[in-house]
Please model this.
Amino acid sequence: MAIVLLGPEWFNPINSVPEMISLVISLIIIGATYKAYKLTKDRKFFFFGLSFAFIALSFISKIAAELIIRSEARESIMEAMRSAAVIDFGQIGFVLTTLLAYVALMMLVFKVHDKRLVSMFCVFTFLFALFAYKEIVLLHILSIIILGFITSVFFENYNKKKHMASLFVFLSFLLQTIAHVFYIIANYNGRIDPLAEGIHMLGYLSLLIAIIYCFKK
Model:
C-alpha cells in the first residue's frame, strides 16, 4: 500500500478492491494459523498469526480512511481539515501496524527471544510511526530491507526441503518485497499503484496456498 488516496482518479472506484481481497486472505491466514496453534501448541503459529493480525489492521486502517474521505464532500475548509486529520490518523495506523507485522515476522524467522531486543524494536517502530509516518517512501525502503532478509531465509529453506509449501512461502515473501519496490515507484507515478496492489495480493495468495498444502499433509 503506497499512501492514502494515492493513484489516478480513474482508478479510484476500484482502488481498494485488491486491498480488500488481501484483507480477506489475511483473515483466512489468521484463522488457519490459530487452528494450527490450537492443534500443536507451537508458539511459532501464534506469533505468525499475530503478525498477520497486524497486517489485517494495516489494511483496515487504510481502507477505512479511504472510504471515509471518498464519502465526504470537499466543499468547505472544515471538511478539508477533517479529511486531512483522517488521512493522518489512517497513515499512522497503517505505518505502525505494517512495521509491527514485519518486525514480528523478523523476530519469528530469526528466532529472537531476548525481550530487551524485542522491546527495542517495538520502541523504534512506534517512534517511526509517530514522527516519520508521512515519509511513506522510508516505510517501503525499510519494508524491502526486512522482507529481503526474511525472503532469503525462506529461499534457503526451500532449497533444503524442495516442498511445494516451502516454495509458495518463498514466492509469497518475494512478491511482497517486489510489491514494495513498485509502491516506491507509485509514490511518483500513481498509475503504478494498481500493479503494486496486485503483486501484494498475489503474495498473500501464495502464502494461503502454502498453508493449504500444509493442512493437506
Observations:
- The CA atoms of residues 103 and 121 lie 7 Å apart.
- DSSP finds seven helices and no strands in the chain.
- The chain has one domain: 14-216.
- Residues 14-216 form a domain with the Rhopdopsin 7-helix transmembrane proteins fold (CATH 1.20.1070).
